[in-house]
Structures are given as C-alpha cells and as structure tokens.
Design a protein that fits this description.
- By secondary structure, this protein is of the alpha/beta class.
- It has one domain: 3-Layer(aba) Sandwich (Ribose 5-phosphate Isomerase B, Chain: A), CATH 3.40.1400.
- It is 43% helix and 20% strand.
- Helix 1 crosses helix 5.
- It starts with a strand and ends with a helix.
- It holds the Pfam family DUF2620.
- This is DUF2620 domain-containing protein.
Length: 118
C-alpha cells in the first residue's frame, strides 16, 4: 500500500506517517498532479494534502480531477480515527488538512487506514 503526501507540509506529513511504522505501508512525498495520476492508475492508494487552512489548496487539483466523492477536507479540525474510518468506508481516499494540525491529523488518518486494511 502506498500513501502519497503533498502540499506545503508534504515532508512533515510523510515524517508523521513514517513515525507510525505501519507494516506494509510505503509513504511517498509527491505533488497533487502526480498524485492524481497515480491514484487513477493504481500506483497509489491514498493522498494526504496540506495547506494553510486545509480547505482549499490542500485538495483543489485532486477534487477537480478525481471528483468530490473521493476527497474530503478536515480544514483545521482534528478527526478521530473512527471518523476517518467512516470516511474510508464511504470511499474517500484523498484527505486535506491544515499545516498546524499535521501532528494530530496525519497519525489519525494513518492508523485508520491501517485498521481498515486489517
């Protein structure tokens, strides 16, 4: 499984996910255009994007190319793993959130993805 990270905090998001040491999960720093291509061709499974507010630039290109049904933005809120799990079950694979929430949001998403595949 491959999780791509992008946006302004792409490296920090990747670091937060790698710190979880999720078995069988590869974390790749990317950008939104490359992520859209890889998500549509099966070269990646999930994308986590960041911007200052988590509401616009974190997912703008991906929403336009993949559709709203695949994408969800948390903005500046911090979801629980249960909330992320429900979104995963609903088919969401692309998540956006704000830079100042990376330390809380990225691990919640990472753990929910790992739990969903178990």
């Amino acid at each position: 499984m491959n999780i791509l990270t992008g946006g302004l905090g792409r490296t920090e998001t990747a670091d937060a996910l790698r710190a979880l040491a999720l078995d069988g999960v590869e974390i790749t720093v990317s950008n939104d255009l490359e992520a859209a291509r890889r998500l549509t061709t099966g070269g990646a499974d999930y994308y986590l994007g960041t911007c200052h507010t988590g509401a616009g630039a974190s997912l703008g290109v991906l929403v336009g190319l993949l559709g709203q049904g695949t994408c969800h933005t948390f903005g500046r809120s911090v979801p629980t793993e249960t909330e992320v799990g429900a979104l995963l079950a609903d088919g969401k694979r692309v998540f956006g959130f704000s830079l100042d929430r990376i330390d809380a949001v990225a691990p919640a998403i990472g753990r929910a993805i790992a739990a969903a595949r178990a």
